Amino acid sequence: MSEAVQDSIQKTVDSHDVVLFMKGTPVFPQCGFSSVVSRVLDHLQVEYSSVNVLEDDAVRQGIKDFSNWPTIPQLYVKGEFVGGCDIVKEMFESGELQTYFKDKGLVPAA
After folding, report:
1. Is beta strand 18-22 parallel, antiparallel or unpaired with respect to 49-52?
2. Would you tell me which of 10, 18, 56, 75 could form a disulfide with 82, CB atoms 3.0–4.6 Å apart?
3. CATH second-level architecture of 3-103?
């Protein structure tokens, strides 16, 4: 992966509390897995930024190299890689994701 792509991804991850690298946009996801993760974030009323990896092949491959994770979407919270669709969905269903966001100060406590 080029250093410029790596730096750009790092800058994006560092400059947003929550960022979702996804196929498409939250309003118009281009794959079911990206749709699931954006819907979970919307449901939890978490403010997040998104990066449409379909707009740039270098970012699409670069994010996989950056995280050493082979699939998209990828969720980052406060600079930390959380996971892809399966992990986010499992964390949401178990209640762990809600606790995680509360602990990070990103959603109001119930």
Report:
1. parallel
2. 75
3. 3-Layer(aba) Sandwich (3.40)
